[in-house]
Specification:
alpha+beta, 3-stranded antiparallel β-sheet, 13 strands, about 35% helix, about 20% strand, binds flavin-adenine dinucleotide
Length: about 375
């Protein structure tokens, strides 16, 4: 049985969850990304191929229903969220209906980034905030299916490819399921993350508890990474953080992220992102506390956005909203040095490699611009 190619596989885990023989192993490869591998007990039933979202063609003529700029009116929630805190508002609405919310938490101390389901508002803080690492998600689709079959309202949040994986795995439409994805730059490698954590652990003799991306101490536009140790925390501005530098230079993203098939073709009910550039369109709407760009992609998504409480939502023309955030429509550009980076990672120092391969040389900047132009031209054709 052939699964989709390594270049295309998003690691969504739909095949692993569907296999009736449970013979698909899901493990990290040498670059630190999860890939499925079919075991000897395979009976060639073909289910894994049938539900692989990467082996299907895209939904045709995708057009969102409405777009908004919004934020959560609870200042504290907004501060703890990466953008404007719209995820919290939608999740709170589902929890109010005694539903279940599935998202990604960073575990205390181990700093592993793992999917989990929650049932209470108090637990929501565990899921808030972006974790810029590939998540561990084995078995989560089966758990979601059980909750759906019990008739519970369910909100599932993830990258566009994971949401596509869940929908494909479920195969039938559940009217108690709401899906929410986000505009996605790409997903960094778990191995790069482990190497970065080693650096964090050497920074002080205190125990590292957690890393918070997109900390807003220096504002939303100047976001930072906060390292929380026992009794002490450090805040690195993102332009000075080595992990963010490699992430934003596309040095260690998953292979499929450089050719993401969900750009401008989202399968979820709601898509969230940062409302970057809103100050150019509506200077009066801008503040530095975080603003979400929100797309209602389906009638169900639009309905829940009408019901959420304690939010400010202002409608934006679709054509403006769809071009405000480059990652909405474009995949990450290849980094010329990605292969070299992974080849050398087992022997060389992580920080030194990031600095070496994410320089701001003229050659590299011209190359990136050229790739972006070519991609834009190909899309416009
Ligand atoms: C890897 C990654 C890349 C991103 N790239 C961009 C980008 O290029 N442009 C942009 O505008 N926005 C990007 N985002 C989304 C953005 O950072 C915010 O998460 C989003 O706008 C929602 O913000 P919020 O304030 O409403 O909610 P938040 O409280 O920030 O909610 C975050 C939600 O994302 C989920 N989540 C967090 N980490 C992961 C993960 N690793 N895998 C799956 N789900 C996760 C959480 O469970 C939670 O539901 C990215 C997010 C991630 C995780």
């Amino acid at each position: 049985m052939e699964l989709c190619s390594r270049e295309d596989c998003t690691g969504c885990s739909a095949c692993v969850n569907i296999c009736p023989k449970q013979c698909i192993i899901f493990d990290r490869d040498k670059e630190g990304f999860y890939y499925p591998q079919i075991g000897d007990e395979c009976v060639q039933c073909g289910l894994c191929q049938k539900i692989c979202p990467q082996m299907k063609s895209n939904k045709k003529d995708f057009v969102p229903i409405k777009a908004f700029v919004g934020f959560n009116a609870d200042e504290n929630v907004r501060k703890q969220s990466s953008s404007g805190g719209m995820f919290h508002a939608v999740a709170a609405e589902v929890l109010k209906q005694h539903g279940k919310v599935y998202g990604v938490e960073m575990r205390q101390k181990s700093c592993r980034v793992v999917y989990r389901g929650i049932d209470t508002i108090e637990e929501l803080k565990l899921l808030q905030g972006s974790k810029y690492v590939e998540s561990e998600k084995e078995g989560i689709f089966q758990e979601v299916e059980v909750a759906l079959k019990k008739g519970k309202p369910v909100l599932f949040v993830g990258t566009p490819c994971i949401v596509a994986g869940l929908k494909s795995y479920l195969r039938i439409y559940y009217n108690n399921l709401i899906t929410c994805d986000f505009i996605c730059h790409g997903v960094p490698s778990g191995l790069a993350w482990d190497e970065y954590l080693k650096i964090c652990k050497n920074r002080t003799n205190k125990k590292l508890n957690k890393v918070v991306f997109r900390d807003k101490e220096n504002g939303w536009g100047q976001s930072s990474t906060r390292l929380i140790y026992d009794g002490i925390s450090y805040v690195d501005k993102d332009n000075a953080n080595i992990f963010i530098k490699g992430f934003l230079s596309n040095l260690y993203l998953r292979r499929s992220c450089y050719r993401c098939k969900y750009k401008r073709c989202y399968e979820s009910d709601i898509t969230l992102g940062d409302a970057w550039g809103i100050e150019k369109v509506h200077p009066d709407w801008y503040d530095d506390k975080g603003l979400s760009l929100v797309f209602a992609n389906t009638a169900q998504g639009n309905n829940i956005l009408k019901r959420v409480s304690r939010v400010e939502l202002k409608e934006l023309p679709l054509d403006i909203a769809q071009t405000m955030n480059a990652a909405y429509e474009l995949s990450a550009a290849n980094n010329l040095f990605r292969e070299k980076f992974f080849k050398r990672l087992s022997e060389d120092n992580f920080a030194a490699l990031v600095n070496l391969y994410c320089g701001n040389s003229l050659k590299y900047r011209i190359y990136r611009k050229a790739v972006q132009c070519i991609k834009r031209l190909a899309k416009d054709k």
